[in-house]
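Hi W.,

Here's what went into the run:
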Amino acid sequence: MAYSEKVIEHYENPRNVGTLDNSDESVGTGLVGAPACGDVMRLQIKVNDAGVIEDAKFKTFGCGSAIASSSLATEWIKGKSVDEAAEIKNSQIAEELNLPPVKIHCSVLAEDAIKSAIEDYKKKRAARRALDGAAEPAKEAHG
Amino acid sequence: MSLKLPIYMDNHATTPLDPRVLEAMLPYFTERFGNAASRTHAFGWTAEAAVDAARDTLAQLIGADSGKEIAFTSGATESDNLAIKGVAEYYQSRGNHIVTTTIEHKAVLDSCKRLEKQGYQVSYVDVGKDGIVDPAAIEAAITDKTILVSVMLANNEVGTVQPIEQIGRITRSKGVLLHCDAVQGVGKVPFDVKKMNVDLASITAHKIYGPKGVGALYVRRSKPRVRLAAQMDGGGHERGNRSGTLNVPGIVGFAKAAEILIKEGKQENERLRALRDRLHQSIAARLDAVQLNGHPEQRLPGNLNISFAFVEGEGLMMAIKDVAVSSGSACTSASLEPSYVLRSMGLDEDLAHSSIRFGLGRFNTEAEVDYVADLVVDKVKRLRDMSPLYEMYQQGVDLKSIQWAAH
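Here's what came out:
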């Protein structure tokens, strides 16, 4: 069971390894998997006002296929809108990397990581809006 | 002297042939090709003589009384099957209970599982955190229905050496047969079937720089005389214990490998222990969060099994391509389950996923050990830079407190 060239390439030259500032409101953080399963992916997105992912970073605890899947995911979502990124399917990742059947779950986790980061970003935006909305009635009461 | 890549450090999986073994075997493929059971001509007599000499050498290796107690097989898996199923079938009127441990080789565990399906009872005794079974726990598991205890000499994953002599005293006093899978330990740690009261022992050639495809089962002939129900029927070879034409070249190679161990084993094991310790110290001195799996002293001289926290085993093996090792990670097993041996020792699953097994052997050098240590340290650091768990650990986050969203 040798690794595919593409998986090795992503390991040797990973794209976008790193950390974004989670306290930044335009950053969404997805953390999926579990150490007990041998697979943990953290994928972060920085979304601009137009709803486009302008930066993405990842860190992964996992095998070569898991590292490659999450690396590829960050590559693909950069420049896409949040809605477009949410449409990425694990099967596309698996096909691009030529993952064997026993490694398909790595691509599933990468898809989950993208969705988890988007969900976190959306939650933060909703919380921000709720905060902004709540501020106004208070102003009126005092005004 | 330049290093030759790839470097092989997986000697628990198999070993290369010692050139002297190959040389000893070759004539038995070409001029001395007779069937050892051909009693009517010189081709057969020559082969038979070689096999008989081999029996004596192997008996000497394990401290047996006589070469007559050696039954040749196709390997230790077959020897394990023969010992367990052969004893169970032959002695079924005496009892139907077997005692073994949770860290045995699959050949032992799966043979026991098959017997359970046929109505036998099996007790799987746990090991401690250090990977060693407590003789008292074995004793507690023995009942008046027990006909066999099976405990390995040394474990193939973590290298830990089991207290066979103490267990042998217990089984002898209770009149229960003791089988020992001695595959990894023979020639490397003390093993003597008479001193240790071992009644059956499985050994194989390809773990001691001999060829694959040949092994043996020691079957005691006196005090007590052990009987077996053969699992391979046919011409009645090996005193009726195992039919089938003998693999004469393989057997000759096996004996040569054993002879080398008898003569050179002591020095070799000292050299291996020093090399292994050098590898361990070189790595442990430069990395934090590194854990040795299994007892630090009671282990095979060439075995090093380490968990590198926050780094996954298969990822690390891919990173140290050009070095052949193996891992207790689920990713490397077909079933996606992490090593059952590490789990039996109570190792947390994430550390089982992070383990690497180094098996040093006769042909490994100091230069190779230094190269590998440097490579491992470099790659672990690189993978930790890519690991969200290591980042959290450095920030003081308690990873055990997190609610992981596993799928």
